[in-house]
Amino acid sequence: MSTAATHVATHAHVEHEEETGLWSWITTVDHKRIGKLYLISSLLFFALGGLEALMIRMQLFRPENNFISAQFYNEMFTMHATTMVFLAIMPLSAAFFNFLIPLQIGARDVAFPRMNALSFWLFLFGGLFINSSFLFHAAPDGGWFGYANLTGSKYSPGHSIDFWMLGLAILGNSSMMAGFNFITTILNLRAPGMTLFRMPIFTWMSFVVQFLVVMSFPMITVGLILLIFDRNYGTNFYFPPNGGDPLLWQHLFWLFGHPEVYILILPAMGIVSEVLPVFARKPLFGAPFVIFSGIMIGFVGFGVWSHHMFTVGLGPVADSAFATTTMLIAVPTAVKIFNWIFTMWGGKISFKTPNLFAITFVFLFTIGGLSGVMHASPPIDLQQQDSYFIVAHFHYVLVGGALMGLFSGIYFYWPKMFGRMLNERLGQISWALFFIGINVTFFPMHFLGAMGMIRRSWQYPAGAGLDMYNQMATVGAFFIFFAVLVSFINFARGLMGHGELAGDDPWDAATLEWSIPSPPPHYNFAKLPTVHSDRPFWDEKHEGGPAVSQAKIAGPGPHHVAMPPSSYWPILVAVFQGLVFVAFIPGSGSGAFNYDAFLKQVMIQGPIALGMLFCILAWVREDDTPR
User: Fold this and answer.
1) Residue 412 near residue 507 (C-beta atoms within 8 A)
2) Is the pTM of this model over 0.85?
3) Active-site annotation holds for 308
4) N or C, where is the chain less crowded by C-beta within 10 Å?
């Protein structure tokens, strides 16, 4: 193993007090605080999405049930998927992007701290905006995929789809800002000696994800803009009688939607690649292969979108091409799985809560991946499409995979974020309930799909033999509910100061973030590190390398570390930008251009846009000299 890294002054006396109080959180541009804001808000949205899932499962507990109405079921189905994808799993990943990337590469903050804050406030506003539709009895009900022409003004004449499409536009803006910010941060702010292939695996997977974000979100943005024009200004991009094509929406949506799957899963893969080596007491097996397989997943992920469209009649040539690429993408995924298995093989494995979630990720994600390979065959997909077999597949990938990986990360990095250990017993109880619940809920859905139960169905007939498996799935959903509840109790105890103090390095880890205090100071590193290996902190502790954690700044007296100042302009820009979208609602959904309604919108949106412009100009002129 190469000799370690070098001088990272972290415990030195530094003259820099961090602000406290509610206002300091509203105006913060500190990447660590923004990461915590993402974590707490996404967990709350996750709880909301889970309650929506319970409503769905309670409706399907028995045949021909009327626990909720068909309309409310459509709203729950749409909002559950939208919430989990855009408001829970994605921002949970963003919490780790924000908190960890600068720490892992030896930087003091992200490249654009104020834009980072704006990204969070836009995310929060977008999530609240979509969910505010419930207050107006106009919750989105067209499915998270928003297929044309069901989302057109003819079939969805109210404002439900308007809340959905405008909310997604806000969230897309947030994600694009974050993507460019993290790409710039990783390329330009790495510590001396931190070459690309010395970066931790989580940062590498995050790096790939940011490229997926900035290349895929424009696709859905274009699709949403065309839908806005169809619904508001009488255009016909998706309306067949006037020359439009509803398949255009499907192509645009899945050009975003399938890379989105890897946007959701790659961060969890990165976390698992950090957790497993720590608890196996071994380096990650074949780390370069893990990196290149992640890159390949990102690259090939843009060439598989039409496997979602095998049933629309694209023809044998297109079907063959997309079947091939879909099977091909299984190769780098399998490479990662074998790397994780060989990392554990022969290791001194410790079954702490983070590792239990990480091992569960490998097992459950493999099940989801194997059923995914089945869908790569068009003849098989013709049978399974729109059945509960598909529901089982993507829940094993996103719940058994992405969510388990993210919970592993929460339990692993909570001590670094908040300075206290989570309760191990509660963590293991939560893990056990999760493991039982996921399998009892989603494995029977394979049988439901094979027996012909279609997805998105409000009811199913009695006497079809579907009762037992649906009842098992509903019981399993309550296991997941209690698993989440136990973890939330654990998190709440941690936030209230319960639990033992963590110390700087409670897991005996290998990378730079563990060399600094827990929680990290505002400035991260008093002196930026110089890195000589891919495991700098491990080398210092176990290989006789130069001191990382205890190095001091040379020279007498206190030392000041210049940091970006707080700013209230990001939240103001987010508010005005959000209000621009809100102003679309009153005159939307008519499907035809109305000059009077258009003029009214201009009269409303014009002053709001001027307010946003003023805030942006004030932002640009603000004194952002580090201090």
Assistant:
1) yes
2) yes
3) yes
4) C
